[in-house]
Write a structure and sequence with these properties.
The protein is mainly β and about 220 residues long. The protein has two domains: about 1-125, Acid Proteases (Cathepsin D, subunit A, domain 1); about 140-215, no CATH class. The chain has helices at about 15-20, 50-55, 115-120, 180; strands at about 1-5, 25-30, 30-35, 45, 60-65, 70, 75-80, 80-90, 95-105, 110-115, 125, 140-145, 150, 155-160, 170-175, 185, 190-195, 200-205, 210-215. A seven-stranded mixed beta sheet has the order 2-3-10-4-9-8-5. The protein has a four-stranded antiparallel beta sheet with strand order 12-14-18-16. The protein is elongated. The relative contact order is 0.20. Mean pLDDT is about 80; it is low at about 1-20 and about 130-135.
């Protein structure tokens, strides 16, 4: 039996923002992914966007599943894109091993490990500890991918990109930068997930009577 708490340094963890979630760092043929550990799921789930991004030698036995469904926590049944096996390395095992996953067109998280994985590896989760990753700084800058103008008295979503390599699937809280404040713009504080291409959505508010332009970067 293995007792897992994946917290390398408890002092590095923000209890206010990370306490509700537990992650496991997963290496898929060199791709670093923060897998969400979900005790409410009996299966392993991967988003189609992440599955498509995986290297070909990291996945096999794909089978279309257009006629299969899975039931979500809200009791809603959704059709799956397919099933497959992926090759991973985790802190539970230094050896590369396979995980059977259900592929969903839209998933709440890029990679979710359910109770079937915990049982197969003899994992016991330690909920008294919070997750953090050694070498992962608590903050990172997000840059605008292109210039944009926020109309007066309005709000808009903007796609930003993290400036440093971070694990796919990590959750964080967007907070406003001095540059936006100097232009009279506000950023809605919200929980975001780093996508498979390193993007995060940002909601920006212009409460003034004049349009505001923000340059790229």
């Amino acid at each position: 039996m293995k007792c897992v708490n994946f917290s390398s340094d408890e002092s590095e963890c923000d209890h206010n923002s990370a306490g509700e979630f537990m992650y496991m760092p997963v290496n898929i043929k060199g791709m670093q992914v923060a897998a969400l550990l979900d005790t409410g799921s009996s299966i392993n789930i991967i988003s189609k966007s992440l599955f498509d991004k995986l290297p070909h030698n990291g996945k096999y036995n794909f089978r279309s599943g257009s006629e299969q469904t899975v039931k979500l926590a809200n009791n809603q049944s959704v059709c799956i894109f397919g099933t497959a096996s992926i090759l991973v390395q985790t802190p539970c095992s230094s050896r590369v091993h396979s995980i059977f996953v259900y592929i969903l067109d839209i998933a709440s998280h890029p990679l979710i490990l359910g109770t079937c994985y915990f049982m197969s590896k003899g994992i016991v989760l330690d909920f008294d500890k919070f997750v953090s990753f050694r070498g992962q700084s608590k903050c990172t800058k997000v840059r605008c991918k292109s210039g944009f103008t926020v109309p007066p008295n309005s709000e808009m979503f903007v796609c930003g990109k993290v400036t440093k390599q971070k694990m796919i699937g990590l959750l964080g809280i967007c907070s406003v930068h001095d540059l936006l404040l100097s232009k009279g713009l506000l950023l809605v504080k919200s929980v975001v997930t780093i996508s498979t291409v390193g993007n995060v959505p940002m909601k920006i508010l212009n409460a003034s009577d004049e349009p505001v332009y923000v340059r790229k970067g």
